Amino acid sequence: MMYQYFVKIVPTIYVKTDGEVVKTNQFSVTRHEKVANGLIGDQGLPGVFVLYELSPMMVKFTEKQRSFTHFLTGVCAIIGGVFTVAGLIDSFIYHSARVIQKKIELGKAS
User: Fold this and answer.
1) Are 10 and 61 in contact (CB under 8 A)?
2) Beta bridge pairs of residue 52
3) Domain segments of the chain: what residues?
4) Alpha carbon separation from 3 to 7, 33, 37, 40 (Å, rounded)
5) Angle at the Cα of 101 (from 95 to 106), degrees rounded to 5?
6) What does the pLDDT look like over 13-67, one tens digit per residue?
7) Buried-state track 43-81, b at ≥16 Cβ within 10 A, e below 16
8) What does the alpha-carbon distance between residue 49 and residue 44 come to, in Å, rounded to a whole number?
9) If we measure between CA atoms, which residue out of 60, 29, 42 comes closest to residue 2?
């Protein structure tokens, strides 16, 4: 059997709200395995292979506290969106009811 492990490593810095800096790494591992008997050249040799890929870019996460006005703006946006969707649904129902009512008055409703 041939086992291949691909490890991707990304250096990461976390900056907390109190100013503390944490230097660490994020990583992900992908595993592949296949039957390899070593007699046929294109299948590879049996063994365990670990391939590392170090990212040349660093990720920096910075915690920030948002102000109360930012929170209030978000709440107002959500409320406005709810009223907009409710208005669209109400308009659709109202106009549909008017069309159906006109058809009933003309005797075309089946």
Assistant:
1) no
2) 7
3) 2-62, 66-110
4) 13, 5, 12, 17
5) 130
6) 999 999 999 999 999 999 998 887 656 656 667 889 999 999 999 999 999 999 9
7) eeeeeeeeeeeeeeeeeeeeeeeeeeeeeeeeeeeeeee
8) 11
9) 42
Q: How far apart are the first and last CA of the chain?
A: 71
Residue with structure tokens 């040349």? 56
pTM: 0.54
In the numeric block, the tokens 């008997």 are attached to 37
Residue 69, token pair as written in the block: 């006005």
Alpha helix segments (H runs only) across the chain: 68-106
Structure tokens belonging to residue 62: 């910075």
Tokens of 101: 């009512």
